[in-house]
Amino acid sequence: MSVNVAVVGVTGAVGECFLEVLSERKFPIGGLKLLASARSAGKRVKFAGVEHVVEELTASSFAGVDIALLSAGGSVSREFGPIAVSAGAVVVDNSSAFRMADGVPLVVPEVNAGAVKHHRGIIANPNCSTIIMNVPVWPLHCVNPVRRIIVSTYQAVSGAGAWGLEELERQIKQHATGQPIERVKFPHPIVNNLFSHNSAIAENGYNEEENKMRLETRKIFGVPEMAITATCVRVPVPRAHCESINLEFERAMTVSEVRQILSGAPGVKIVDDVANSHFPMPIEASHQDEILVGRIRQDMSRTDGRGIELFVSGDQIRKGAATNAVQIAELLVG
Prior knowledge:
Strand 3 and strand 4 form a beta hairpin. The protein has 2 domains: 3-125 and 321-333, 3-Layer(aba) Sandwich (Rossmann fold); 130-316, 2-Layer Sandwich (Dihydrodipicolinate Reductase, domain 2), CATH 3.30.360.
């Protein structure tokens, strides 16, 4: 069965990756609409060897569309998501616009694929850091319920958009040639530096990214009261996020049990070569879909055996965004 697909925000980093992943996974596309803002309309983009012209996103763009993949920001999603649904499309939205809305499934296919069938026209793609954490934590939680998660993230600049990567590259060149470091969009210099994730601090003292990880994981896991605390940091790495994850389980859990569970978990690759100090790294996680997991060890601060430490890395543009959305679309077409 072939379906008609629209990609909104196709000229952005995630939009471009949508096309890459759709092609790689041989998604059954009948017709394809490439949509973006007026300033990008008219650009030509190749998909599966065929050149397509990017069209301006308008209220009439979704006629005949079966599935719409949106990655153009929350304001665009809030405006055009309902329009697409009214036209008969199912929306898979990559923004934060609908993630916590009642009745909107928030889906990581390796975790809660069954939630897709409860959609009312819109399915939300979780935050990239949430996805990267959830893929390896869920299979452990299924065996031995997780009671508490403490996570610290090391987030690549491209997670902020193409401009984040451009700002890092520009500052690297400026530093190398002894020029003054020009800060444009990040709140601080990113070259030779790191800082709290560049999202607003809420009244609870946590930034938006930290609150997303807590609230979204609770919804995806179906555990509204799960204890989760996060510290999210932007680091001078081009692509792929890393996370240090401390887990407290209901019962004692050994390192060998964790290895056994994760070795067979979908979307997970164990990279834990202690002898060669080879563990998950962004340079190896980039441009692939598996979440790399290593530094698997017992939490030595506990005497009850219920604590496990992990270090993970995942490509936030692929599995953290585009691939996860395409996997959701695959569930829709069966």
